[in-house]
Design a protein that fits this description.
The protein has four helices and seven strands; from the N terminus they run ααββαβββββα. It is an alpha+beta fold. The chain has a single domain, classed as Nuclear Transport Factor 2, Chain: A (Roll), CATH 3.10.450. Strands 1, 2, 3, 4, 5, 6 and 7 form a seven-stranded mixed sheet that branches. Strand 6 and strand 7 form a beta hairpin. The protein is globular. The N and C termini lie far apart (42 Å). InterPro entries: NTF2-like_dom_sf (IPR032710), SnoaL-like (IPR037401). It comes from Olleya namhaensis. This is SnoaL-like domain-containing protein.
Length: 134
Amino acid sequence: MNTAQNKQTILDFFEHFSAGDATSALTYLDTDATWQSMGIKGDLPVSGIMDKNGIGELIKMVKSAIPKGLELTPVGWTAEGDRVAAEFISYGKLTNGREYNNPYHFLFQFSDGKILRIKEYMDTLHVKSIFVDA
């Protein structure tokens, strides 16, 4: 796959992620896919490494908390070989009326046209203040 195809795969994955459509989103992931959310395990509900099933549960959790969907807007890309680094900004309104608006940096690794690895960097204090301390 080329860089443009990999970027489109990421956009398609996040389109389904944002809509809370776990079944469709997971089709863009390799069977052995993992998502590593940076943070000390246990301090945040999503810290650590999730397998493909865990990613599906994350999508459902986000949909439950943000029923109108989490908007994910790309603001920058860097790609080389089977790796794509992407910056995104998120926005969503939680069921309790709070607004979630977080910057992200993702590193994606591809295998045979599917997303194999996702590393996520974000403002963990914002996640804690919106989802944990609410």
